[in-house]
């Protein structure tokens, strides 16, 4: 069976993603001019967005990655954020921009933001490609948002269902029959 057969609908196409990411990169470039910025991608979901976004940020930034997991193989969050890989860099007095693929309950980012603030970063901001505000259970301030998405099962462009579909080049909704069987 082809991967496309599990796609319900394409919500955000490749061209639209590229254009919005270009705008976000420009905004971030202006906001962090002359500042020591570390852009931190949250793996695995943010991997595709991160690599496209940083190419649209001008200036001498650094990058780092964290691996965290709140869902595992389940489709619902467990509420427990596990740090599987922490930052390599010392972030004292550095400006941190956390890059995420999607904010759902807000648990992952609320946890990470507090965790990094406690490590004496100069500032911690969040850039997410997608926001699903109707699912929020933990309030978290988000400075950069690519798109708002409806309460559907989202896949593609880094976002998985049971570790599959991350390689789709667009954002799509998943067919009900796939996650209800
Ligand atoms: C997903 C997604 C976000 C988080 C959002 O990651 O990539 O990181 O959940 O959910 P929340 O707002 O309810 O915390 P996941 O834990 O599935 O790991 P992954 O990025 O490796 O898929
Ligand atoms: Mn994730
Ligand atoms: Mg996941």
Automatic annotation (TrEMBL):
Molecular function terms from GO: guanine phosphoribosyltransferase activity; hypoxanthine phosphoribosyltransferase activity; magnesium ion binding; nucleotide binding
Reactions that this protein is recorded to catalyse: IMP + diphosphate = hypoxanthine + 5-phospho-alpha-D-ribose 1-diphosphate; GMP + diphosphate = guanine + 5-phospho-alpha-D-ribose 1-diphosphate
EC number in record: 2.4.2.8
Alphabetically ordered keywords of this record: Cytoplasm, Glycosyltransferase, Magnesium, Metal-binding, Nucleotide-binding, Purine salvage, Transferase
Cofactor: Mg(2+)
Keyword Chloroplast attributed: no
SUPFAM superfamilies: PRTase-like
GO cellular component: cytosol
Superkingdom field: Bacteria
Functional description taken from the UniProt entry: Purine salvage pathway enzyme that catalyzes the transfer of the ribosyl-5-phosphate group from 5-phospho-alpha-D-ribose 1-diphosphate (PRPP) to the N9 position of the 6-oxopurines hypoxanthine and guanine to form the corresponding ribonucleotides IMP (inosine 5'-monophosphate) and GMP (guanosine 5'-monophosphate), with the release of PPi.
Entry protein name: Hypoxanthine phosphoribosyltransferase
Native source organism of the sequence: Bianquea renquensis
Organismal lineage: Bacteria, Bacillati, Bacillota, Clostridia, Eubacteriales
